[in-house]
Amino acid sequence: MTEIAGLASSLADRILEKHAAGTTIPPDLFRMLVRAARVLHDGGIPWPPSVDFLIMEVGRRVEEAEAQGGDINAHLAQVLDRAKQPSE
Prior knowledge:
Elements (H helix, E strand, L loop, with lengths): L1 H19 L6 H16 L6 H20 L3 H12 L5
């Protein structure tokens, strides 16, 4: 499970890096992250911080966008923009 946690963390970091660079995030990259997060969750293993941030924020933003009838892609971009800002 340690290897899966490391993989999930690397995938989350890669997604944040791609967004920060302004490049397209391949859907398969995000799907791999979700699959790794599910394996960890099913095994009772806590998610690494970057995985937790992305999964929880994306889920929350999707719910908000659906409730408001808004653009899900715009909400996801806002999540990633916040993630690349330095912590205070």
